[in-house]
User: Fold these one by one.
Assistant:
Number 1:
Amino acid sequence: MTGPDSTAQRPGRSVARALRRAVRRAGWYVREVVGENDYQHYVDHLREHHPDRTPPSRREFERMKIDRMEANPKSRCC
């Protein structure tokens, strides 16, 4: 049956859904590569493995991260 009560989806909807999913996944990938999610990963790690510690603020975390990068330089662009 292909009337208005049909459960078959229109092809445009499935394409739009696949496109939204692809954009979300690409966004996740870019955030992981550039380090945007590092703070959340760190907080999650602290909560799971060190529940007695208070996580630093985002600003403190970024300062620690930059200090660590400067103390132990690796190959980087700048």
Number 2:
Amino acid sequence: MGKTNGEDDGREAEKMNVGQRGCEVVCVGVVSPDYRFVPARRCGELHGNNFGSSVAPLQIEDFPPHNASDCWRCSTPAAVHCERMCSTKHKQKHRSSAAVSAVDKVVSEEDGDWRQEAINGGSLKLVDLDTGSNGWASPPGDLFSLRGRNYFTKKQKCPSGPWLLHPAGVDWLRATSKLDHVLSRADNRVMHALRKSQCEGSNSAKKSFILAVNLQIPGRDHHSAVFYFATDDPIPSGSLLYRFIHGDDNYRNQRFKIVNRIVKGPWIMKATVGNYSACLLGKALNCHYHSGPNYLEIDVDISSSKVATAILRLALGCVTAVTIDMGFAVEAQEEEDLPEKLFGAVRICQMEMSSATFIDTATNRSLTPAAHSNRVQASDLQDDNDADDGASIDK
């Protein structure tokens, strides 16, 4: 039986799409027989858009002409997208184990015994990137789309690439009062591991710098999710990250950015938060910065926003079914600071609230989760204050 005119038109349209847009059809999308461009879901996820569901088909004329070898959205060579997003099942099978081994490789290559101890310690364990649960992993930077070199002229975003700092562990903590400046506490296991390595004469440990993000979660019991990132190399003087570390709080508040990806979760969570979103945390929430001779800690007070607290209640109601990627960056607001780069990223995989380590704030003493295994419900949350919200969304 011969092909219908509609089938012929569709195939010709697909060929045209490959030639003009530069990516394989399976990676970017197809042009329907009536010449509407329909983006594919996978490439949409790469670029931070929820394509393939509610987004209306886009007209061909909506897109400016691009080099035939480049992606129509971020000018990345088409072969890179096809290799990254359209890999075979064999490659996908080994991707998650490679991601876990990548963390170990970073540590072993750089005399990073203290970081190995920090990564493997804590109640929230390092798990497989794709199949792990009740733990954390390190998602590749290319899963996040940030401002590219041409952002201020063409509004183009591109994959972030490698993190500027290396993962150095995650802490999931619980206390009767808010945990501030955790790196200064005598019972902080990450700082303890670093100081022990320094005392043992490790040259790399003596040069190490830690940047910690402490997400403070309100409730009857206060929780903190603390993400540690570190480097043994000097941070380039004059770089955006260097200016952020050594700048004042106003400079930091204007630029401290979080980028979220919902990897797995119920539809109500995705509908409320969005599959991909970015926010200047320093504008949306109260952030407090604590500097030491070899560290910077950012305490993010989620209770300072009624909107953030409400979203948190929703998230805690289904936390064991949610896997989320969080990337942290210093927003590039000048052309010379482009392209943006993540200084670190973490994936939280279907976490159990009860796995938190209890911190006795009166005695600086840590207790194991087994001794305090009460499950925290979303109803346990309560607003600590009614500060105005000031989120700055960068979609």
Number 3:
Amino acid sequence: MNDSHIPGLSMIVMNQHQILYQDSLGYAGYNYDSETDRVIGFSTQNDNIYMIGSITKTITCISVMQLVERGLINLDDDINKYLPLPIVNPYYSNETITMRHLLTHTSSIGTTHPGLSVLPNDQYSTINFTNFIYGALLEGGPFYSEFSWLKVHVGKEYHYSNLGTSLAGLIVEIVSNMDFKAFTTKYLFEPLNMSSDTFWLIDSLNTRQKQLLTNHHLFNASIDDFRFFFPFLKFSEFFIDSEPLSNISWINVTERFGLLMHPAGQLRTSVTSLAKHLLMFINNGTYNGIQILKSETVNEIKKIQFHTSTSLKVGLIYTYFDFKITKMRTVLGHNGGFIGVNSWMLMNPDTNIGVIVLSNGDVVNFNQYQSNKVTTALITITNYLFDVFETTA
């Protein structure tokens, strides 16, 4: 962690029956002490609440599949069956986009400017979600960009798309006639007993819960880059005086933030609560006697739907990763990375061991070397936990 400049992390290991190990290391954030004129770290704890980045997409996937089970969504129907106005790729307007395409990143949808869709605190929730999606996907819309659509045929190429997953979240809203945040709370977080520390909105937290939020920190990056690409957020630069990271320059995101593309990366939760979500998946859709999905639905999510040009094997949102560190291991799950966020949630289908590691430090792509160091460190930690607990299982 020190070599990779990761402020803090929380980790948990489970099999299909129980939690096997849990711990938290490092700092949940740093506070300025005016009396000593120093920046002091405050330690992580197991109930810290992290933004989990793109692991959120697994929540969106489960929500879609719950509606598939109810017969309200068909994975292979034209998505325009569910939408008030048609959405098509303007380069290939005669081609049909389906929910399966959205959940496998093969829809030919690109992205909007990420910085313009990141807003302070809960401001994202004041903007009509439908208007945002259409504004990003219809030419001339306020969020439309040259990257909104790719010049590729639908279903032929894998291109990771936060906007595509967000569209899937909008369809959940329309089909269920419920706000996406309310749907996930009612049909996933409450049944799994996650709702006490799993949140979409900062303003919904009480004082104690806000104290458990981890801060977002960035090491060895240009503050000007972040101010340019995320113009609505505030950043500050500081030095850490506490050992072992003395005299190292960091950037702090000085206020909480939310995403207009919230079904793709917004969720905040603890490693303890997220473990319930993964345990449900490991146990084929059931947790603590509560069925969230049928086992055949989980099998459909796990089924390889698409092989990418980089040899990734893609299920429905969930992706297979080949780790070759101590030995070859293929695991299934998702990771997440954003401003001061790097997280992993994985299971080994052969052993039913699950590992989650959440951290509060990354610089996304503004310093690729540093970002790679953080990712490599977390993969190494995750792989080590698999090694230990698969050996003892």
Number 4:
Amino acid sequence: MIHRTDVSRRTVLIALPLLAAESQAKAWGPTSVPVSMGEPVYRRDSIVSSARTADLLSRLRKTEGCMRADGFMDETGVIAIWQEWVSVQASTAFWRRHGTEYGTSTLRKLRALRPMTTHVQLVHDYPFPARDVWRVATDLDHLKTVTEGLLAFRNLPHGEIHQGQEMRVEVSLFGRLPYQPYEMRVVEFDDANMAFTSEEKGAGVKTWRHSLSVATTPTGSRLTERIEIDGGLLTPLFAAWARYMYRQRHPRRLRILETSVSRRNG
């Protein structure tokens, strides 16, 4: 029997309860559209061994013609490897050499499947001055704190972000999966109006444009975040992950602010 925790310790990307089966089916389900041998396609193969999946993902990502490969576990414990290939021939050649242990593979037209860029927006209110919230939201040391247990970083700088800053880091999902290259660039930073925008990519994401602003309210302040995501075929899954991850940052920021005010008044 495969346990979800077993898979999370390897190279399989798991979003588990965050990624609804309905979204997966919408993005990857079967279709009657015929596939030409020479056009880009997506392929999904079902695997039952986490060790086997880790090995296959490593091989796929090094194989010419495979543009992308990720693994997900469904509610039944079966792991699906989702791939983008330049052609049916390239896909078939790989799987003839390596085969599947179990079950099904499906081919679909890549261009017919690719979802449009999606947007996620979150709004949170804080009973603290806007300037205090802004300082926490723009401090990279606090970024580590508010993402602890969800993401782990390597080579992340310290201190406040600034206009034009470029960061090439490595990121690990849950701090357990292998670290992957990730790039972040601060394209807009307006300290006076408390707003910034960063453009990010890596770890399977083609575009992750994150805009954040803080405004004063009668009860304190309001932080608004808008994330524009292009994850190709996996865009609905990345969007679900974004909603979850950014919601988790709110109570952690509250704790940071409460501690900061307590020390200041101390």
